[in-house]
Automatic annotation (TrEMBL):
Entry keyword set: ATP-binding, Nucleotide-binding, Transport
Short name of one Pfam family: ABC_tran
GO molecular function: ATP binding; ATP hydrolysis activity; transmembrane transporter activity
InterPro entries: AAA+_ATPase, ABC_transporter-like_ATP-bd, ABC_transporter-like_CS, ABC_transpr_LolD-like, MacB-like_ATP-bd, P-loop_NTPase
GO cellular component terms listed in the entry, alphabetical order: plasma membrane
PANTHER family: ABC TRANSPORTER RELATED, IMPORT ATP-BINDING PROTEIN
CDD domains reported for this sequence: ABC_MJ0796_LolCDE_FtsE (cd03255)
Name of the protein in its database record: ABC transporter ATP-binding protein
Lineage: Bacteria, Bacillati, Actinomycetota, Actinomycetes, Micrococcales
Amino acid sequence: MTTTTSPGAARPAAPHEEPDILCDNLVRIYRTEGIEVVALQGLDLRVERGDLVALVGASGSGKSTLLTILSGLDTPSAGVARVAGHDLSSTDRRARLRYRRHTVGFLFQQAAANLLPYLTAAENVGLPMLLAGVGRRERPRRAREVLDVLGVGDVADRRPAELSGGQQQRVALGVAVANSPRVLLADEPTGELDSRSSDEVFEAVRRANEDLGTTVLVVTHDPLVSEHVARTVGIRDGRTSTEVLRRDGEAGLVAEEYAVLDRAGRLQLPAAFTGRLGLRDRVRLDLEPDHIAVRPGHDGVDGKEGA
Ligand SMILES: Nc1ncnc2c1ncn2[C@@H]1O[C@H](COP(=O)(O)OP(=O)(O)OP(=O)(O)O)[C@@H](O)[C@H]1O
C-alpha cells in the first residue's frame, strides 16, 4: 500500500537505550463477581524515545486497559510496564502522583470538555505550570510558546466557548504538554472531530512530538492518524499482534505489515489466513532454508490429524 502524504519515516530504533515505553509480558486480569477477564494476555511493546506510535485494535482488545496502566491509574496483574524509567507496578502513591504530574501527559477524546470555561486558552495551559511551581511571570510566556507550537497562539486570549472544537482540542493538548512530559498518551484525540479539525489536531500532536520532543502513543480508529505515522501497532485479544511500518519510497510512502513475534516465540496468525486454509487446533511447521511453512495439521485425505 502506498500513500503520497509525507510523515516522518520510521526512525532507527536504539536497542541499547531503555525505551520510553516498555511493556514485557504485561498481564491485566479483571475480577468481578467471580468472573475473570484477561484483558491483557502477555503484551509486549517498545516505544523508543521521541517516537510517535499509533495503537489500533477492535473494541475490547485491551487498548484502554493498556493506556490506564501506562497513565499510572491502574497497576498490572503481572509483567513489566515501565515509562521513562518509572516502574508502574509500584504502589507508592506519592511516586505515582509525581509520575502523573511530571512524566506523562494525557489527551482524551473529550479533553476539550475539561478546559476550565472561565479561563483563557493561555490561562488553561498555565494552570498545570502553576501546580508544578512555575513562577507567575514565566507562566504566560511559556503558555504562549506552547500554544504557538500547536498552531493556536492567535487564540491564546480566548475562552474555550469562543474556540472551534479543533482549537479547543489543541488547547487541551497544550495543557497536556504544559510541563514538558517525556511521554504523551492520547486516547482517540480526533474521535469527535470533522476531518479538517482532525487534521489540525493530528498536526499539533505531530508538532508536540517533533518540536517539543515528546514521545507519543496514540490510540485511534482514525485512518487519518493511523495511516500517517511511521509505526502502527495492532493489538488483538490483549496482545500486540501486527505492526505496520511506513517509510519514504520512490512512489511516496510505502507501508509494510508485519506479524509480531514475541520473546517467547509466539505469533498470532491473521484470522483471514487461518480461516482460508482451515487452520485450527494443531498445525505443522516446516523449516525451509529462508522461511517457516505453516500447514494444516490434518492431511485432508481422510480428515485425520497428521503426525
Ligand atoms: N473494569 C473492568 N472490569 C471487568 N472487565 C473489564 C473492565 N475494563 C475492561 N474490561 C474488559 O477487558 C477487555 C478489554 O477492555 P478494554 O476497555 O481495554 O478494550 P478496548 O480495546 O479499549 O475497547 P474499546 O475500543 O471499546 O474502548 C474487555 O473484554 C472488557 O470487557
